[in-house]
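Suppose you are handed a protein chain with no further information: no name, no annotation, nothing but its sequence. What can you learn? This example shows the usual starting point.
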Amino acid sequence: MLRAPSFGFGAAVAAATFLACLAPAGAGEGPRQERVVPLRHAHAHNDYEHKRPLLDALAHGFCSVEADVFLVEGELLVGHARKGLRPGRTLEKLYLDPLRQRARANGGRVYRDGPTVFLLVDVKSEAKPTYAALDRVLARYGDLVSVTRDGKSRPGAVTVVVSGNCDREAITAQKVRRAAIDGRPPDLDSTAPAHLIPWVSARWGALFRWQGKGPMPEAERARLREYVARAHKHGRLVRFWATPEAPAVWEELLACGVDLLNTDRLDELWRFLLDRLPGKSGR
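A reasonable first move is to predict its three-dimensional structure. Written in structure tokens, the prediction is:
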């Protein structure tokens, strides 16, 4: 049975049945179902590389998407490398505007009655000017994004988390903040509030050798459980990138309490997670 993780800002949320929500308008591709189930564990890595950025992930019920951004002539362009950037593919047009449209149509949530959805913004250009530009952009989406004012957080339909070249100093110092920090292993025991560092992310291969072939070594399993427990103690979620794209690995991650499963294979992870929802008998 799939575990529902804590997605609040610093507060543990009791396990609950996942809520069925209306499929996104125009979602003619992807899962063929009348209603979409929000999958809190599902993170779309490099989401912008899919045929329909954001929309394909939403059609599968993903509750976390990732967009790489570069600051180019004052605009936040989305893409994996500078040479692949194209005019018009901005963070606003590909992500923030359609997310706002969805939230307005669904009573203030991306999925009606569903959880906060994460937008991981992976900064590829210089940290300080890029975050300054991002902050200016997010100021126009106060009706959509989570906001912290003087240490008090108001969760929104979307929580923006900054990764990559992250200007941690500027984000931490803000009195009014519309983005959070993608933490790293040194943040596991940090006393910073969870609304500032809601996640701890790490490259799987930097901490674990198991790649999904044969049973996971017990020593590594114990180390993974201890790692997750340290993060959860402070209300933080756990995410790994570059994990093997294999059901055996996803099974172990879920069993050990990992909150977000990184994938480029939307359909495969969607089927895997749906099979493990409460009431499902398995594959």
